[in-house]
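Table 4 source record.
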Amino acid sequence: MKKALFVLSGNLSTTPRAVKAIQSMPLGTTCELILVNRDDEWKKKDKEIINFLGIKTNYVELGRDPFLPWFKASLYQKLATFVYRIKPKSELINAYLSNKSSIVLWEYLKKQDYSYIDLIIGHSSGSLYPGFRLSSVINKPFVFDVEDYHPGESIAFDAENEKQRREFLMQALLPKVSAVTFASPLIEKYTKTLVGNLNNSDTVLNGFNSDEFVFFEPKKTNVGLKLVWFSQKVSFGRGLEQLFEAFIILNESQPEIDLELTLIGEMDLEFQNKVINPLVLQLKDSKIQFFIKKALQQKELHAEVCRYDVGLALEFDSRDLNRQICLTNKIITYAQAGLYILATDTKAQDQFIGENPELGVLSQQSSQNLADTLLSLCQNASQIKAQKQKRFNLGKKLSWDQEQEKLKSIWQQIL
């Protein structure tokens, strides 16, 4: 019986790709989990998942309780700032200075006997160095999942040096691991441009189980389009402000336009009072209707989303390159639900729609362009509704049922 160790630099409840990877392991494989607890509320959610998976789990704490490991990690990180000036190419120093979770993970792992483990899998950036070091010590294969392109993220402190540290660790370690998986094609592209050739790699999208989506037939084709947008929180800075401005533009030029918009998520009351309520008042005499639904658990959310016609994937370019090249859960959810996708033209969404033109349309990132695109959708509402079954069938190709086969192939080659 083979044994696999999953190493996470965060909580399991905030790393759903790790949960999927655990579930994709070959039958008969025993999995263990070591993770860094960042928040007690997340830890409670972790336990529900751990009990469901029935997996042996050990935690290391990132906070001050217990105090001594936190104090040692803080001291090591402080010392690393001085050593970095002398040894800027040290893998350990770069890892310790870049991410405190790397410190607490490696300080824990190096004291354990994991000689019985056959495969190590790392998720989240802080697990790259500890997972690689452990694999070197016990001479067992290591697979790492690149869910985000961390050098491209917005970095608040010591940005230039931290970007270089992240790039250095990826360049130094990824070419040496047994296999690398990526969460989007562009994350794979940017990573390979940075690090060069890899031993084995593949993009594994964040698809969902097909049985969570049930085809919902549009009952009428002569009524307005039903739009949906969801997020954990309905708030500022998520593209809704630009969408609402587009509605105002659309209503002024085409007052007969018939639309419904449903927002799903935890409502930010300040956003509701300052943005949504004034908008509803301004459009009270129009045919544009608004509905708000509370945040839903994953299965309930997927069932609900299937009831709409158009899904809104409103991402906007920023300094954060990672946001531009990642594929959000939204766009994949809409595709699996059979919705027609209105996506803004970030790099990743541009590529996705370009490769899957039947699934949706791109809009430039301005309110006027969004208004123009919405008008075009309304003018083609009957066709959009009529082709929902075709899109639903195409979306199945993005499901986790399909994507997990890529992981299973990697496990089969290594184990």
